Amino acid sequence: MQLSLHTDQAVKFLICMTQHSSGCASARDISDMCGLTADEVAGIVHDLDRCGLIERSSDGSDGLRLRHDPAWVRVGDVIRSIEAVRVHPAPAHQPAFTEMFDLAHAAFMAALNDYSLSDIAGTAARNVSGGAASYGASGVAVMVPS
């Protein structure tokens, strides 16, 4: 199974929010922490807000916070939510393969739901190199169980 770059970056953003020392952080602080551009972050923050995963400060500042305790936020549910708010054309499968792909997708999401944001943030923190978390070429791919 392959995740879109946008979904990968959104999960990376949530991991960085989980690792941030205070409960509220600016989008710029988080983007600097996880190496994302301002343009990437604008779309990510919009989608994470639409999914109900983050909330913006009510005082008009740039502050963001996780809406739920990261120990209770399941990675598969995050990915499913992010993918649901993005517009994707349905893949053209042969009818004979539809059930197989649906089952494979369900198993993939179930495996990801074995992990919370706290779990993968802890994994990323243990991979620290040079003072910044090392996410590899693809942030989620490093953390998907084999």
UniProtKB/TrEMBL annotation:
InterPro entries tied to this protein: Tscrpt_reg_Rrf2, WH-like_DNA-bd_sf, WH_DNA-bd_sf
Pfam families the record matches: Rrf2
Protein name stated in the entry: Rrf2 family transcriptional regulator
